[in-house]
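Figure-free illustration: sequence to structure, shown twice.
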Amino acid sequence: IECVARGYLTGSGLAEYEVGGEVCGNPLPPGLVDGSELPASIFTPATKAAIGDHDENITFEQAASIVGREPAERLRDLTLRLYDRARDIAKSRGIILADTKFEFGVDDAGELRLADEVLTPDSSRYWPAGSWSPGRPQPSFDKQYVRDWLTSPASGWDRHADVAPPPLPEDVVAATRAKYVEVYERLTGQRFARA
């Protein structure tokens, strides 16, 4: 499973909320809109999809049936602690960490290990706090820019067709890179080493 934490409502969580008022079995208050801050961060696990497919949101109970109740509880607790800490750091730098995903594995000794990349714009949704305004899609420092281009008429791609997405134009690559560099510099307080 993928371990996802959300502190704000958007993306697949928003779509699920609009249908049933909850996300991955977590009931949420009525009246939330795209970009709403949640009363508390929530654990919203997903199944790991095959390459090219989309991960599927699941409930905590479904996650527990896959990995066992005790490991699922530990994954939930670690995910929320990591997210809450990162959210607070980002907030202190004028950035909203709306949601993120973590991947864990077990080493040869049976110890749980945080794996893959963490808290990058590829696995996290970052928004500039100064322009946050619930009720609409938020400006972002993450791969949402690429998603938006791919689903726009400019790409000419139908994601439901059995055709690979088109190559990204240089201007989309450059704009995405600039967003990644900006969030890096704002989060770390360091200049990004440019080649």
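We now fold a second protein in the same way, so the two outputs can be compared directly.
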Amino acid sequence: MAIRTGAAFIAGLRDNREVWLGSERVKDVTTHPLFRPSVESLARLYDMQHETAYRDVLTYRSPSSGQPVGASFLIPRTRADLAHRRQMIKTWADATCGMMGRSADFLNTMVTAWAAKSDYFAQQSPECAERVLRYYEHCRERDVFLTHALIDPQVDRSKNRAEQADPYQCLGIVDENKQGLVVRGGKMIATAAPFADEILVWPFPPTLTEAEVRYAMVFIIPVATPGLKIICRESFTKLGQAADHPLSGRFDEMDAVAVFDDVLVPWERVFLHKDVRLVAQLYTGTRIRELTAQQTNTRFLSKIEFVYGLLCHMAEAIGVQNAPPVQETLGEAATFIEIIKSSLLTAELQAEVDPSNGVMYPALQPLQIGRTWAPRMYPRLMEMVRRIGAGGLMQLPASVDAFDSPIGPDLEKYYRGAQIAAREKVGLFKLAWDLVGSDFGSRHLLYELFYAGDPSLLMAGFHREFDKRACMDRVKEFLATT
């Protein structure tokens, strides 16, 4: 099949999946008014793969079929391959202003990392390694859109999975038979689950004890599998004119809880099970971190470039772009862009080939800069939007339609900017409000704070893993000369 069109992606979602929005079971996520804008935004990414302007960046030749396939499935063997992957990710991220953190390239990257380290799964059995390779090829050749659900329900975090009052509060194995595993329980946070073809499940964080063996499993199944329910949060999609809700009207990914009611997972889709050590070490053992960190840093770069551009436009709109405090603020925002960009390029420059599989991996420590600093940079950028926008964010007319009403002349007079017309300024500030004042914007702030885990633990982990010996030795050498 090779690369899909947007129409083919949309058609694939009409599979009688069980998706709940409040008390409503959604019959068709592709036509539901609160889901359709996001589905269409994702479909646009698939269509870009077919366009001459993007085809060479977004695709590469399949090693099996020779047909174009998504570049997020490219197993990197050279620095040029890493650059190709980065450029592909950036192109898709730019198309959504960096607002869709779980576009298809994220999980494509994870499955690609598994395939590159398929020997890891062979420690469970040779069949598991073969399943991983077959599944990777299945996804690559059919352009599958995956999501994942990793986190246990937030019920009683003082107890481990086996200690919960209900042994199937967390997703666990009920039975195994000739067909596969039967699983029961819940998983969160399944971002984009209503729009995904399939869902990857494994326990994360991987703090598994020997008592938690029934929870040790890694598998992928179609979202439309019988017994799987997707329970959505409130939609943040705002209907109406795009000018009134420029981001939330298009890019609400939707987050959900996945509930498994004695779901059968065929053996062909089981990659690890009941081996606590292998499941717990999967993240580092398959070197997922390096490749997914490149994706998340690139997507974050796209997002903060967009925010910086907005800040510059806002400052010019109200004539404060030359004020020293504002220039200092904008300069700080610009440094964030260069920090993340530099970390990405440094990771490629310092990339090394893993002799076990011949794969070129970007250096991890530079990429961890994005993971540790994004939870600090993004809230600061949102503070900048608030400071520059100030009261102007609160005085916006309810709708841009009002410019065509009897109060239009008043709006043109009192809502204009320093050098731009009122309608243009209102559109700009409505974009800013969508980032900092709407439920959509609040969700993105929370997302950037926690998407890679607890920010404090991430920073502490960076210190633990950092090669500190050389720095410490310098201090010792200096003291020895005094």
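Summary for the second example: The chain has a mean pLDDT of 96.
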